[in-house]
Amino acid sequence: MLWVPTFHFVGVESDKVAHEGAAVGGEGVGAGAGGGDTRVMHCVVGGAHAIILRVSSFFGLAPLRFESRCNGFTVSISNAMCIYGYILVTILVISTISGLVAEMSAGVEVSVRMSSRMSQVVSACDVLVVAVTAGAGVYGAPRRMRNMLKFCESIASVDHSIGAQYSRVTERKLCAILLAILIFFSILIADDFCFYALQATKYQRQWNVVINYIGFYVLWYVAMILELQFAFTALSVRARFQAVNNALALTAKIVSAPVKKMYEPPPLNVLAIRMAATEARRCANVSLLVDTLHDPDHSVIIRNTVTGEPRLVVPPCEAIRRLACLHGALCDVVHALDRSYGLPLILILISTLLHLIVTPYFLIMEIIVSTNRIHFLVLQFLWCATHMLRMFVVVEPCHYTITEGKRTEGLVCQLMRSAPSNGSLPSRLEVFARQLMLQSVTYSPMGMCTLDRPLVASVLGAVTTYLVILIQFQRYDA
């Protein structure tokens, strides 16, 4: 287990840490972070998270077996779905590369997407980066899903201690947003495919274009589903950080710390409703804010009063200790998630950068040539908007998670300034502060960049530079 070394560095006794690790999902954290636990894992998912996993399963990105339950679906790794995903993506990649070679061999005179030497290079890069992204997503899917099933235990322990309230309204909104994105992208893909097929009719090559590009468009869909899968998983983890911070703010209020703003605890499980390991010791529909306290190491930190107000059920010192353990568990989940999606995230960022260069390039060249293809101009504009949306889908959940991490640091600093100097509370806060220094809340795929809003500014700056270079080359090519 990774609990012992992690907390030993910040001064907590190792025997207590091992016991606490078991209490707050130590098995799931250790396994999720790369431990040697080989148990057959299951978890229960529902709502929007279940929808994205079902769609991902169809495209080979989530090789899972789904078993219906009254409160969602029990999911586990399926060997048959692993084989299905490998075969599917292999066929699609081979078909896409063969189609690219055939389209380039046809020549720029009759090609609808490669009308110049420059556009041949640009289109080839476009096709290849999508194929590599989708291939990395599918081939790495079994390992990512195993890690997901393992760190579900850690998420379940946070829900157990902090409290999870099921919000049907929020869940319906999330499902609606997810379906809207999928429908919009499906319409855009179909429209783009039909547009180029119709353009090829004047060269009597419409069926050649359909055969050459159908694999490419399916792989496009796979890449988009991969991004949504990561975004929903990251947002689910972020919701738990927010709940820990709300409990920390409540603790700060009790010890009279000057917290700038006291947030009302929102419904916690807004993305992965009932997301838990099946062996978790709780009923599916119980409100964890009023759970029982038979085992002191499994007791909840907060419960509701008669008036519905949340209050601590343990002393502030004990609350700080348990919140530090929960925060450490969530940090391990973030690091496991970062490692699981490292290569696909880097490829997605490269793909997004390339497409944000290529798509405006074709749009600008169409305006310069002035062939009055309004449909093409509208398509390229929609693709530009889609690629910007893709970048925000990846970056924004990570940005929100980092923001919650900074909020934790601020709350602990305020508590350290305002807490009484006597008793064990200052020492607990010092341990928590050292833990925050050693465990950062950040997504840094393969250590190459940090997924935060400054990355968006860097990408847009790079896009502007390369667009100018491409347009200059086009002038000499003409």
Biggest beta sheet summary: 4 strands, antiparallel
Flag low-confidence runs. 1-40, 265-274, 276-298
Structural class: mainly alpha
Give the helix level as a range of percent.
55-70%
Radius of gyration from CA coordinates = 25 Å
| Share of residues in strands | under 5%
Total E-strand runs: 6
Q: Gap between N and C termini, in Å?
A: 63 Å
Mean pLDDT score, rounded?
76
Number of helices: 14
Order of helices and strands: HHHEHEEHHHHHEEEHHHHH
Query: Major sheet: order of its strands?
Result: 2-3-1-4
Shape: elongated
Family: Belongs to the insect chemoreceptor superfamily. Gustatory receptor (GR) family.
Subcellular location: Cell membrane
GO biological process, one term: signal transduction
Organism: Papilio xuthus (Asian swallowtail butterfly)
